[in-house]
Design brief:
Order of helices and strands: HHHHHHHHHHHH
Distance between the termini: 71 Å
Structural class: mainly alpha
Helix content: over 70%
Largest sheet: none
Oligomer: single chain
Radius of gyration: 19 Å
């Protein structure tokens, strides 16, 4: 199979258009500023970039690194941008639904995200999903997206559970500390653990173990950048709040 074939699948043909339609209808009732529209557009663009291009073919048949890129987009980047894209009034309406009220609790959202990430990366589950790309793999990607939305909701929205800036900083730091061992484990394992790629053709001169090490290091690196950046924003806001509180008391 040509690794550079452009493909279309359920994520590109069904999920992205469905999200676009839903968001378009929602913002007719809850208008959003351009910055939030841009965030949503970027989220959809990232999803199309990894599912409607040769990245999809490479992820399915050649490189773990490409598949982990898809997972990162679905579990971290796209969910964060989607949550950020919601105007406050729309977020409030969604946040008061029973599902979001439950899932957006930090004590629920963080374990849900971590559990989703780690369970799908257990080798038998990972290979099983890749072996059923028309069914189970779609379920995997949808679960990443849902868990990612739950993870980012209490950080980027204040309804229904408003967190102080210090709590948000601590929450994001905990997400990185607890989530990064997965990438480190993949980078440090002495042998390739996923049958799909271990028995595959490889690409670009990467053998299965080198591919797995690159995938793990890349995953840790992007999480360090993304989570630390968000942590820094809220930690600086926390310091500003503390300074303002001290000035007021003084």
């Amino acid at each position: 199979m040509n690794p550079y074939v452009w493909t279309w699948n359920g994520e590109a043909l069904v999920l992205v258009p469905s999200l676009v339609v839903a968001y378009t209808l929602a913002i007719r009732l809850y208008p959003a500023p351009r910055a939030r529209l841009a965030a949503f557009g970027l989220a959809m663009g990232l999803m199309l970039a990894v599912f409607a291009t040769p990245v999809q073919t490479i992820a399915l048949h050649y490189l773990l690194t490409a598949h982990l890129l898809q997972n990162v987009v679905m579990a971290e980047w796209a969910p964060a941008l989607i949550v950020l894209a919601l105007p406050p009034a729309l977020a409030a309406a969604l946040g008061h639904t029973p599902v979001m009220r439950a899932l957006s609790r930090p004590v629920v959202a963080l374990p849900l995200w971590l559990g989703t990430y780690f369970i799908w990366h257990v080798p038998p589950a990972y290979d099983f999903a890749l072996g059923h790309p028309a069914t189970v793999l779609h379920l995997e990607h949808l679960s990443y997206l849902a868990a990612g939305v739950a993870l980012w909701w209490p950080v980027l929205q204040d309804v229904p559970h408003r967190l102080a800036n210090g709590a948000k900083a601590a929450y994001v730091f905990a997400a990185f500390v607890l989530g990064s061992p997965l990438g480190l484990l993949l980078a440090l394992l002495p042998s390739a653990v996923y049958r799909t790629y271990r028995d595959g053709q490889g690409l670009w001169g990467l053998d299965p173990l080198s591919d797995q090490q690159l995938a793990g290091l890349t995953m840790v690196g992007e999480q360090a950048v993304v989570f630390f950046a968000v942590f820094a924003v809220f930690f600086l806001r926390f310091l500003r709040d503390e300074e303002a509180r001290g000035t007021t008391l003084g």
